[in-house]
Amino acid sequence: MALAEVPPAEFESEDSDPLMLWTTRAACKGQAELFFPVFGERPQARARRENQARAICATCPSREPCLWYGRLHHEYGIWGGENEIGRVLAGYGLLAPIGTRHLSRGRGRLGSGEAGHQAS
What we know:
By secondary structure, this protein is mainly α.
């Protein structure tokens, strides 16, 4: 299933309930340890954990709204099968870009969520 190029309408409002309906259908419920890193996690362990999380996301009925939630709210961890590096590469910056500045060169400002603007 191809994901939309723009966020679903439910994410356009600043008044959106943070506990939207899609979260009740999420396949990841009760498995937070797969979607968010622990302090000091080694690269190989992170890759294994993220692959397990992405496998759950691949079959989740809430994948698309989850992906957009992660992008538009500058989240860390796996959201809709995408990690923070994937979000930066897609043009959605992080609020505290630790270790991702090199990914944004020529793509836009980190934290802005906008591609095409040069960093100052």
